[in-house]
Amino acid sequence: MRRILLLLTDLHLGGTPTVVRELAVRLAREQSVRVHVACLDSWGAVAEQIKSMGVAVTALGGGKKWDAGIFSRLLGIIRRGQFDTVLSFLMHANAAAAAASLTCRGVRFLQSIQTTQPWPRWHWVVQGMVARRAEMIVVPSPSVMEAAGKWAGIPAEKIVVIPNAVEVGEFAATQISNQPSPRTSPGVPGEGGVRGRRVGFIGRLDPVKRIGDLVAALPRVGDDATLHIFGEGVERPRIEAEIERLGLGGRVILHGATAGPAEALAGIDVLVLPSVAEGFGLVLIEAMAARVAVVATDVPGIADVVQDGVNGLLAPVANPDELARAIRRVLGDDGLRQRIIAGGRRAVRERYSWERVFPMWRDVLGLVEGQGHAD
Predict the structure, then answer these.
(1) What pLDDT is stored for residue 194 in this prediction?
(2) Which 8-state DSSP code applies to residue 318?
(3) CA 314, CA 297: separation in Å to the nearest integer?
(4) For 189-232, how does the pLDDT look when each residue is reduced to its tens digit (9 = 90+)?
(5) Which of 115, 116, 237, 374 has the most CB atoms at less than 10 Å from its CB?
(6) 247 burial level (CB within 10 Å; 0-12, 13-18, 19+)
(7) Which run of H or of E encompasses 198?
(8) Which pTM value belongs to this model?
(9) pLDDT exceeds 60 at position 372
(10) Residue 259's pLDDT is what?
(11) Which residues sit opposite 318 in a β-bridge?
């Protein structure tokens, strides 16, 4: 019986927790594998999802600030569970796992880095130190591999690239609106005074996402365009202030956090990711799977996933004019839109489906081929 612990910083809504959830569920289906998920933070929405899927999950309750008991609680989980492998994600969890490796003999430790964000630089310094305690570092894109080498000094031979993935069948196909959306009830894309083409953002409201650029781009897209923002985070007050400053209160809707992207994607016509840095951008392939056209910034991580004019359009970062221009092209050229939608579906099928990606994880974790799956 293989015993695998997946450890990450938090289990709140987000790209990495979603990847860990899907990986855990698939590992749990394997015969002779017992999987447990733990996070350093308190209980979150993704923890609840993992529990509902029948996978054991523990929140260590340390929050973002370390407390004296979090290390002993982590050691207790590893020892009681008799785990042979600990796979950790993100810097704080990687550091905790590295500390545990000092006293856990015979346990295999793997780490994952999921960002290209250069700041805070001390994160990379710490990551470089704790990576020495890992047998292997898993990253989702070549850009993260390059960042890990540049800022953390991790040698390329210690890194393996495994892209993020989606379950294609979970995303219903959406159709772009060619006429102004109907008016019915408030708070839903295309309803309650919301009209025209529906531009969407899904993700954390974080400075790295540069959502203000998207708000500023909206008036340049056209008078019939509306913007739907799904997510919560520290940037919400600034975004609200920018909406008010530009007089866009009737055209920008802040929907708050969404439990899953499929419903949000079904209510928008183009997904925009205006980030200054990404490790991968899971929402990009979720949109591609849902047949929603993608516009994003030409930055490391995103450019590993989006091929300009093939499965999406790329625009310069921090440039609302060019961002608006790309959105207008998608909304105004049906032939282009259909080509990049088809290219997105093709990319997901060929490179980013769990059917393609899960065998890579099995190899890294040393699961024996042909051992079968649990019923």
Answers:
(1) 39
(2) T
(3) 5
(4) 444 333 479 999 999 999 999 999 999 999 999 999 999 999 99
(5) 116
(6) exposed
(7) strand 198-202
(8) 0.91
(9) no
(10) 76
(11) none
